[in-house]
Amino acid sequence: MNPIIIVGTGLAGYSVAKELRKNGYDGPLTMVTADDGQFYSKPLLSSALAKGQNAESLATSTGDEMANTLNATLLNHSVVESIDTDAHTLTIDGKRHQYNQLVLAIGASPIRLPFKGDGANDVLTVNNLMDYAQFRNQLENTKCVGVIGPGLIGSEFANDMLKSGYKVELIGPDKWPISTLLPEQAGRCLQKSLSDAGAIWHLETFNGSIDKSGSGFRTELQNGSIVEVDLFLSAVGVKPEITLAKASGLQVNRGIVTDEFLNCSAKDVFALGDCAEVAGKNLPYVAPLMIAARALAKTLTGAQTRVIYPYMPVVIKTTLHSIVTLPPAPGSPGAWQVDGNDDGVVGRFFSPDDIMSGFCLTGNKISQKASLLKEMPAL
Ligand SMILES: Cc1cc2nc3c(=O)[nH]c(=O)nc-3n(C[C@H](O)[C@H](O)[C@H](O)COP(=O)(O)OP(=O)(O)OC[C@H]3O[C@@H](n4cnc5c(N)ncnc54)[C@H](O)[C@@H]3O)c2cc1C
């Protein structure tokens, strides 16, 4: 019997594997990953510094331990080069591997802005444990870090570094922090709390060049200011990994296109997690991938199961000013109504016909999550 092959050992890949075994699948299972296959929780990368955790302590199991627990064959440091969906094979290092069913859980890659300058290649991004080890290594001799991108991930890293005694400067064209997920008043609360902890904000501007300067880096902003730091970290978003799928003839859009059952455009190929666009939605968060993993394991073990998302508020780990948000779908018509002050706000998003379609809570208001969820219309 050919195995189920899962490509990717992030939270999506390992969650499907665990759910498959829970659902009684006792057939062959192969896990393939470009990295070493260690298990870790990616969201912890942006809050580990202040907790005194490093890359080694974040990895809770080795790839071999995971393979043993899951009774799976692990092919680590193995990049899938191509997929032949007609022949049901994939190729690693020129060798073909036959699958019965194939699950793509290959994640997303950080977007890299095309900076000019002799320091452009030294800008770090953190999207996995190896990146994190390098980031921590470079923080050793660092006092001041420039964060490019004042969104969710950039603000979380800034929060973590400020709590750990680093000087942080944040740069981005946004009017306020996390502007794609939060109304202005909520973003301003976060901006104030991080400023109180020492953050310097350069909003509504951006930089085009990163140059080496002494032992650090220097950038000139569009508004004429100069920022000099020891290290730049870029956090300007991620793009789903679609290259392999596209080259293999699978339908792609922003992500690898699937229906509500996580079927890709070829028979016996499925996708979930950051790489997938499930029924039109690419949701790069943990809650949606866990729901998808449970549904997919049922489908793969014979009970066709649709992915049904409940409301999934996002907890933003800016502990200097905590935030929970359930943003409306991008581009939704309507407006935020926000009450509160610097200590915390409650925001509700209403459509033009007065239906609540999102909310956010910050600071001393985050305990109201359950009651705000009850105010949302039934799904
Ligand atoms: C710093 C940070 C903080 C975050 N915080 C939160 C949070 O608080 N809450 C939240 O909900 N979400 C958070 N997220 C998002 C969340 O972590 C991701 O949605 C989730 O971890 C994605 O898991 P994944 O398994 O889809 O992808 P990944 O973890 O990226 O795994 C992809 C896997 O695919 C493998 N792979 C890729 N291409 C190939 C190939 N060709 N051949 C073989 N293997 C391949 C990789 O080696 C890897 O094993 C955060 C993300 C980051 C970066």
Structural topology:
Elements (H helix, E strand, L loop, with lengths): L3 E4 L3 H12 L6 E4 L22 H4 L4 H8 L2 E3 L4 E5 L4 E4 L2 E4 L2 E4 L3 E3 L18 H11 L4 E5 L3 H12 L3 E6 L11 H13 L3 E4 L7 E3 L2 E5 L5 E4 L1 E4 L3 E3 L2 H5 L8 E3 L10 E3 L4 E3 L7 H15 L13 E3 L6 E4 L8 E7 L2 E7 L5 E7 L6 H7 L4
Parallel strand pairs: 1-2, 1-7, 2-3, 7-18, 9-10, 9-15, 10-11, 17-19
Antiparallel strand pairs: 4-5, 5-6, 8-16, 12-13, 13-14, 20-21, 21-24, 22-23, 23-24
The chain binds flavin-adenine dinucleotide.
The site of flavin-adenine dinucleotide has 33 residues, from α1 and α8.
Q: State the CATH class of the largest domain.
A: Alpha Beta
Report the bound ligands by name, code or SMILES.
flavin-adenine dinucleotide
> Ranges with pLDDT <50 over ≥5 residues?
none
Q: CATH topology of the largest domain, anyone? A: FAD/NAD(P)-binding domain
**Strand element count:** 24
Shape: globular
> What's the architecture of the largest domain, going by CATH?
3-Layer(bba) Sandwich
Radius of gyration: 22 Å
**Overall structural domain count:** 3
Q: Give the terminus-to-terminus CA distance.
A: 41 Å
Beta-sheet strand percentage? 25-35%
The major β-sheet equals: 5 strands, parallel
Report the total helices.
9
What is the percent of helical residues? 10-25%
Helix/strand/pairing class, anyone? alpha/beta
Can you give the mean pLDDT? Answer: 97
CATH superfamily of the largest domain: FAD/NAD(P)-binding domain
What oligomerization state is this entry in? single chain
| Major β-sheet strand ordering | 3-2-1-7-18
